[in-house]
Design goal:
MutS, DNA mismatch repair protein, domain I; six-stranded mixed β-sheet; 24 strands; about 350 residues; elongated; alpha+beta; 10 helices; homodimer
């Protein structure tokens, strides 16, 4: 099939060929005067499949030449082409008229004339920065338009990992609040001990702490939360003096500089009736249960980050891969002055 | 069994009781005048097990009191006690006379009088910094003394993850070097394309690049390595001008700021006949094969870090957990001006 390169498009003028290529794979955009206009991604893909011969002012434009031209026209062409090509080869119809996104993709077997868009897809280099703010915005837009958001991340060898991103907090069934009164603990370095069995109610009501014999050991974050709820008083080991919540938080922050950030996410999840424990073994801040941790596996891994957090995709890749390996969902909790917003990321194969 | 608190020790003077506790669990250190001297870890553990009543100048010292005393005497007592207690409860004989390490631990069923120390153990808070330099030194010392090095990392809830650290590079069977001559590629953004089938020898000899149809796509790091070996020439897409190795490295560093660091580790492993590919999917720098990547799984994940690298244990925990989940070993490659040194970390249950 012949096509003419004009600017950044390739025009296929022959009516019969144009309708065949449009109707079979939904390549190109039909023109008012008949024929179709292919964008460079489409043209290069069809050229690679030996279905298109491109000419410019009468002379043939080779595949390497057309790639070079596209790369000059758009600095991220290489990344977008790798993703476009992969999705096409997986049998999807992929179109570039996708608003804020790179591509819209139809469900397998679906077409623009019969079905709604299923996925918004962005093609991303592993070297591109990851901004949590953008990710929240994109996932909210996808949510509002009832489509799934896929991030197709291209590594330096051209392999693609697909991530599905979705907005929304983890949730648990509501549990009745119990007023159990206050118990007393003492601070031992970076943990708090509630001794002689007096901590039992904290463990049975909310699964706080870890019982070691008749001692209940609480983490700094559990302690601050329980102090705020009025269920725990802390005394210093040396003087026996009582500590206020503010003094305790200050102490905790001196031990763990991001204490306040974690605390905000912890409080938010506890208020949602989730049971929150440290995720250290998984290299995340929290592992989160929607019920009794002694007879459930944790469903979520949650990492608290500032709402303006920026990192590299390799860090995201690591977190998602790990969660996938232990059959949990990873959520990033973006903590701002006003709110905690959650984004869930999953690896998937489209 | 009664014992007297004197300074930071508890003395058990009764000969019969002293020999029984020493011979059964190897608690304490025998004294010249008979009896044994328990250190505070031992005394608190025996007190917790209701096997010891501690007195000071005639009055009983309670369990909470003795813990507070120990915490005042040594700021990391809490962490060390959690590990000591765990190893004892797992049935190991644990002694604190361990030189540069916190503990020496005998093989299960072994004792100081019958067997050699099996493990050096250091008790570490998850909040302690991780210095790669220290880790290399400790693992080399362990290697020289033919013992295994365990890092017992205590998380904020008092749970322990044991890591085994060992020095040494990954290795592969030697392969014959082949001189295949030079081919030509062109730089497209952050990758290099060798077109029209001319890159085939690079892929068949050394498994460089990724074939996409008749195009071989090389990563920046593969490109720099092959240029240095004299197997590849690069031309710029716009001008067709030839690029030198130095100019290419400069360009690569502008795209990926830690290019030089990765390059050093990559070159070192390639010189050891390993096949090195990106580890992006695992959130590490490299996945490493000791043979043909098309019919082996990669054995190693390798992360390149500067020789003076310092991080937190949660990052180490994440990397080891991930590698464990995909049945690979994680190695940290510490890159200095002179050398690349490797430390392998594995999760284990003693």
């Amino acid at each position: 099939m012949p096509g003419d390169l004009i600017g950044d498009s390739v025009l296929v003028k022959d009516q019969a060929e144009a309708s065949q290529i449009y109707n079979k794979g939904f390549y190109g955009y039909p023109q008012s005067g008949g024929g179709i206009e292919l964008d460079l991604l489409e043209a290069i893909f069809l050229q690679e499949c030996d279905r298109l011969v491109v000419s410019e002012e009468g002379s043939v434009v080779s595949h390497p030449e057309l790639i070079r031209k596209a790369a000059r026209a758009s600095p991220d062409f290489g990344i977008r082409y790798i993703v476009y090509r992969d999705l096409r080869q997986r049998g999807y119809v992929v179109k570039s008229d996708a608003g804020d996104f790179d591509f819209r993709v139809f469900p397998r077997g679906g077409t623009p004339s019969t079905t709604q868009t299923k996925y918004w897809v962005n093609a991303v280099s592993e070297r591109a920065p990851f901004h949590i703010r953008d990710m929240i915005k994109l996932s909210q837009t996808s949510d509002q338009t009832r489509k799934e958001l896929l991030l197709a991340v291209v590594d330096e060898e051209g392999d693609i990992t697909y991530y599905q991103a979705a907005a929304g907090a983890p949730h648990a069934p509501k549990t009745a609040k119990v007023d159990e009164g206050e118990v007393e603990g003492f601070l031992l370095e970076d943990r708090v001990l509630v001794m002689n069995g007096t901590g039992q109610s904290l463990h049975s009501q909310g699964f706080y702490g870890k019982p070691i014999g008749r001692t209940l050991q609480l983490s700094l974050i559990e302690t601050a939360h329980l102090m705020r709820l009025g269920r725990l008083i802390i005394r210093l080991p040396n003087t026996g003096r009582k500590m206020g919540v503010a003094a305790f938080k200050k102490k905790a922050t001196s031990i763990q500089s991001d204490f306040e950030l974690r605390m905000r996410a912890y409080d938010d999840m506890r208020e949602k009736d989730l049971v929150v424990k440290t995720g250290f073994k998984y290299g995340t801040h929290f592992r989160v249960y929607d019920g009794d941790p002694s007879n459930h596996h944790s469903r979520y891994l949650v990492h608290a980050i500032p709402a303006d957090y920026e990192t590299g995709w390799p860090e995201i890749s690591r977190a998602v891969r790990l969660a996938h390996g232990v059959k949990k969902d990873i959520l990033f909790a973006a903590v701002s002055a006003k709110s905690v917003e959650y984004v869930r990321l999953r690896r998937m194969r489209p």
